[in-house]
Amino acid sequence: MSAPESQTSVIRAHAEQAFASELAALKKGDTRPKPAGWALSPWAVRTYLLGGEIDGTEITAKYIGDARIIEIAIATLATSRALLLQGVPGTGKSWVSEHLSAAISGDSTLLVQGTAGMDESALRYGWNYARLLAEGPSRGAMVPSPVMRAMAGGKVARIEELTRIPSDVQDALITLLSEKTLPISELGEEVQAVPGFNVIATANDRDKGVSELSSALLRRFNTVVLPTPATLEEEVRIVQQRVGAMHRSMEMPTEAPALEQIQRVVTVFRELRRGLTEDGQTKLKQPSGTLSTAEAIAVVEAGLVMSASFGDGKLSSEDLASALTGSVMRDPEQDLVPWSEYLKSVVRERADWKDLYRACKRAL
């Protein structure tokens, strides 16, 4: 995960917009064979995700972690087999999905957000009912889904939170993934996928959602599990890069977030997540939340806003305390005891964490 290039006209640019110069440099210097329909070779897609250099242009790392995971994901998509990214919340599933789509297709916007109330039209097609009544069933009256557009255009479609989709709607994917064909029964036609089409889906390990995936559907995917960061240093680097990008994009009148404060937040999250201190000496009660890397990023970002708006512009424990406490105590009744005991037995006992202890106690 890394810092996007400057974008001032929108709050959050798509990956292919934010990293356009990197993608252009990779495309220009990429001499390796490309799968049919791909904008870049698998090597260039890997370089885009994991970072590197090409013809003097630095490619920033979008994913920090085990390179083999990204290689397996890219190889899966190169074989035209659909990819399922699985993991606990905050491990970067959507982030990786977006950047893979941007690198392979040059377009990360063909997105379906899974919900409990969605129907098959979200995966297949819908209708413009005014034109349908006026003209009858026709291609002009049809509203293609992102998946249908991806099939016709040879691009990657993204499906978020696959397990939140009802089982009968999940089943609509089986034909799409196995036959690479979308029948249009009203017109007696079909859309056949062109080279480059594929699907990247995400699923949450912690929240099982609405419907378990059927074995028939799972067979159409190769599942890659995105783990939580393996080391403290790795997670600190992720948080530092993402927060630094936000700090620059918002042009905040504050100092860049101090590494010491980021290390504290990440350490708190890792210890409570594991139920064990970093030195392995003290067992801890675990709160109910996931305490993911994404939440650690949110805590530091909230602290920066507090510092810029109501402080001296220098990120302090006072700025972090409320967001940190709120993130840990998702359930005020269930999480009060684990958090209070952690503050008392761990935070208070660390000589250089006294300020954080006092600030968090006041925030309770």
Describe the structure.
The protein has 364 residues and is of the alpha/beta class. The protein folds into two domains: 66-225, P-loop containing nucleotide triphosphate hydrolases (Rossmann fold), CATH 3.40.50; 232-363. It is 46% helix and 13% strand. It has helices at 15-18, 20-29, 42-50, 67-78, 93-105, 129-135, 146-153, 167-170, 172-179, 215-218, 232-249, 259-274, 293-310, 317-328, 332-347, 354-363; strands at residues 52-54, 57-59, 82-87, 111-113, 125-127, 142-144, 156-160, 181-184, 189-192, 198-204, 221-225. Strands 4-7-10-3-11 form a five-stranded parallel β-sheet. Strand 8 and strand 9 (189-192) form a beta hairpin. The protein is globular, with a radius of gyration of 23 Å.
Brief digest:
Helices cover 46% and strands 13% of the residues.
Topology record:
Elements: H1 15-18, H2 20-29, H3 42-50, E1 52-54, E2 57-59, H4 67-78, E3 82-87, H5 93-105, E4 111-113, E5 125-127, H6 129-135, E6 142-144, H7 146-153, E7 156-160, H8 167-170, H9 172-179, E8 181-184, E9 189-192, E10 198-204, H10 215-218, E11 221-225, H11 232-249, H12 259-274, H13 293-310, H14 317-328, H15 332-347, H16 354-363
Parallel strand pairs: 3-10, 3-11, 4-7, 7-10
Antiparallel strand pairs: 1-2, 5-6, 8-9
